[in-house]
Amino acid sequence: MEKNINKKMNTMKLAVLASALIFSSSSSWASERIISAGAAITEIIYALNAESQLVAVDLTSKTLVKGAYPLVGYHRQLSAESLMSLTPDRIIGSNEMGPSSTLKLLKQGGVDVDVVNSGETVKDLLERIDEVAALTNKTPAAASLKAEISKKVDAIQTHLLTQSTQKKVLFLMIHDGRPANVAGRNTTADTVIRLAGAINPAANTIEAYKPISAEAMVQMQPDIILLSSRTLSSIGTIDDLLKKMPLLAATPAGKNKALATIDGTALIGGLGLKSIDEAERLNKVFYQD
């Protein structure tokens, strides 16, 4: 009888210890203080319902967060001092996060620095979701989010089957005092254009974002010019763009004054959830007839 009592007591002790370990583990995750350095990271954190772990975000995430969070500056120009003052446990960002000297100081200060997948394909996005889910202890939520993304991409692809012809869409990055850049292959802009059912005429000859002459743009004969909404707001209208770059008038886009915009946050840190939404929207814009 005494043996049975001792056995029951040992079993109870083990159960209490297991509960304590589980509580300790969950508490440590709940108390994680995370800084998100990139819109493509922040949107996933919210989609996984892990925003309670956030203590600050970068400027590219400003429009994505619900509630007041300290802003730590631009994700490419982070300050170690301002970040450390927030006593974070970890900072999560893309391969655009930096500078490297800041990241080195953070590591030396005991902060976990996590650079997640920053690629521009749907596969990269799904991998990034898994990575962020693991870092925030939200792995079960990742499966449903990935299923939602796959379903949305499949719906876009199905809709594309009804299109008889593809339009050529050229994405331009325009900054005062510098030559305009176009988005070539292996860019998020290229992926969004293709997901939206269009052809990127720069993809055959250009990789990444590169400056090219207006004459080279004319040779590509785009049907539509794609700009970030921020760029268009600084330029004005399609007429203002043609005044700034008059040779574009010799393209179908210029002749038809065909201009579309994309939310710039959809292009930061690789293909993101916003990128998929923008591809879905742009498909309707490109083929509204």
UniProtKB/TrEMBL annotation:
Keywords: Signal. Residues 33-289 form the Fe/B12 periplasmic-binding domain. The keyword Signal applies. This is Hypothetical hemin ABC transporter, periplasmic hemin-binding protein HutB. The lineage of its organism: Bacteria, Pseudomonadati, Pseudomonadota, Gammaproteobacteria, Vibrionales. The keyword ATP-binding does not apply. Residues 1-30 form the signal peptide. Pfam families: Peripla_BP_2 (PF01497). It comes from Photobacterium profundum 3TCK.
